[in-house]
Specification:
15 helices; Protein-Tyrosine Phosphatase, Chain A; 2 domains; 17 strands; single chain; UDP-N-acetylmuramoyl-L-alanine:D-glutamate ligase; 6-stranded mixed sheet; 8-stranded mixed sheet; 433 residues
């Protein structure tokens, strides 16, 4: 058993060596030994390729504005590990992490000796979240973010009130499939019998898979641009303004303080989920709760402006879709500035596409690496780039310091790539600006 938080955290992170093992049997085994605490939870399940964390945050903030106590389970973290299990946006304490890790460790040890083998890091953390919200600190509702895929993700043993699928992109292709249809099939695996689904998926091939699965499960499906739509979008200096319209009502002049046109879609999913929860009498929410919740929603590392002078932005654009959204916002908002980019990514991403798009918008681009098992080498990224002003550095901290020191007036520094990288960058940059 662990006697300190540090010991518990070291054990959890050491399980990264087990890699990714899709499947539900290990989760079901552990939960059965704990009398299935996950079945005692009222929950919402959110999957998709990009926008899951932002959608979790919008929905959590709206529910919180309505006076409800909301648990969230998200990944990865940006500033501290405890963020992954939070209540009303506040990470649980070190003491609570120690407490629930000591509950799960004996189960993990016992499971290791079976044919199922030991649970992965993500399975351990998921089990901790289930136990915590059911037994340690009960809440009104828990919002669970899918870790990877959906069908075989460790969160997929819950029976949610509703499910959300944000969008579909070509990410984790070696695990989920190489086509939009194959990946959509995995994401659609979170759809449960009779449980409503809200989606912002627009690609016809991916949407067709979701429609088929929803029909099979007799699950009501609510689709963007059909059952609800975003109108009158306007970018604000530090956010977005838009109108949401569905068949019953129109909510005009909604404001979010998260930057990016794509965030209006994530917000619209949270609004639709909120309206459903209210209309079914499950969680009372007013229109004012929705407005207040949207404006208060904050999610770190997503086009986050860390400094105005010098202008520094961090963005966890960790796949092709994320880079596309980032480049769009940079062109829209800062097309008149010189853009300096520091970038790294995991080696299993679509690096050629990502770097190609960054090359188009960057006046200068520096490729770095960082200490993570799946991180791509800086030289590898450098060789892919066709920029005329490109650099590579194995010391990302030194590279960022030099960029900040040499950043000219009228320029912007954008640090982007893997969310695991952004989680290291943010506290470091905060100490020097």
């Amino acid at each position: 058993m662990f006697s300190t938080y540090e010991e518990a955290l070291e054990w959890i992170h050491a399980r990264l060596r087990l890699g990714i093992k899709p499947g539900l049997k290990r989760m079901e085994w552990m939960m059965a030994r704990l009398a299935n605490p996950h079945r005692d939870l009222k929950s919402v399940h959110i999957g998709g390729t990009n926008g899951k964390g932002s959608t979790v945050t919008f929905l959590r903030s709206i529910l919180q504005a309505g006076g409800h106590t909301v648990g969230t389970f998200t990944s990865p973290y940006i500033e501290q590990f405890n963020e992954r299990i939070s209540i009303n946006g506040k990470p649980i304490t070190d003491e609570e992490i120690l407490q629930i890790a000591n509950v799960i460790k004996p189960l993990a040890d016992e499971l290791e000796g079976t044919e199922l083998e030991g649970p992965t890091e993500f399975e351990v953390i998921t089990a901790m979240a289930f136990y915590y919200f059911a037994k340690v600190h009960q809440v009104d509702i828990v919002i669970f973010e899918v870790g990877l895929g959906g069908r075989f993700d460790s969160t997929n043993i819950i029976l949610p009130i509703l499910s959300i699928i944000t969008n579909i992109g070509l990410d984790h292709v070696n695990i989920l499939g190489h086509t939009y249809e194959e990946i959509a099939f995995e994401k659609a695996g979170i759809i449960k019998p009779g449980t409503p689904v809200f989606t912002a998926v627009k690609r016809p091939d991916a949407l067709g898979v979701i429609e088929k699965q929803a029909e099979k499960m007799e699950a009501p499906l609510f689709k963007i641009n059909k059952d609800f739509s975003i109108e009158n979008h306007k970018s604000l200096p530090k956010g977005e303004q838009f109108t949401l319209r569905n068949h019953e009502r129109t909510l005009g002049n909604l404001v979010i303080n998260m930057i990016g046109e794509h965030q209006t879609e994530n917000a619209s999913l949270a609004i639709m989920a909120s309206l459903y929860l209210n209309e079914r009498g499950l969680f009372p929410l007013s229109k004012e709760d929705i407005r207040i919740g949207l404006t208060k929603a904050y999610w770190p590392g997503r086009f986050e402006i860390l400094s105005e002078n010098p202008l520094v932005v961090i963005d966890g654009a960790h796949n092709d879709e994320g880079i596309t959204a980032l480049v769009h916002e940079l062109n829209q908002r800062f097309g008149d500035r010189k853009i300096h980019i520091v970038f790294t990514a995991l080696k299993d991403k679509s690096l050629e596409k990502m770097i190609g798009k960054l090359d188009e918008v960057a006046d200068k681009i520096t490729f770095v690496s960082f200490d993570y098992p799946r991180a791509a080498a800086a030289d590898t990224l450098f060789e892919i780039s066709h920029s005329d002003n490109k650099f590579a550095s194995d010391d990302w901290q030194k590279a960022i310091r030099e960029e900040l020191s040499n950043l000219e007036d009228g320029s912007i520094l954008v640090v982007t790539g893997s969310l695991y990288f952004i989680s290291e960058v943010k506290p470091m940059v905060r100490t020097i600006i």
